[in-house]
Amino acid sequence: MMSIKANLLVTLSGLAVVPAAQAQMVDFDDYGPLRVYAQSPMQSINHSPLLRSGFSLPNDQKEWYITANIGSMWSESDVLLADYYQNTLTGGIKWQMSDALMLDINYRWGFSADNHLDSLTMWFHDAFGFDQNGRQDQAKHQNQIHSDKYGIHIDDLSGETLENAITAYLGYQLLQSEHHGLSIGASLYLKSVDSGPFAEDSFAQSIQINYSYKNGPHHVNSSLGVSFIEDTESISTNSYDDRFTTIAIGYEYRSGRHGWLAEIHRYAGLVSWDENFSDASHEALLGYRYYLNTSAIEFTLVENFENMDNSADIAYTLGYRQKF
Question: Which region is the signal sequence (predicted)?
Answer without folding.
Answer: 1-23
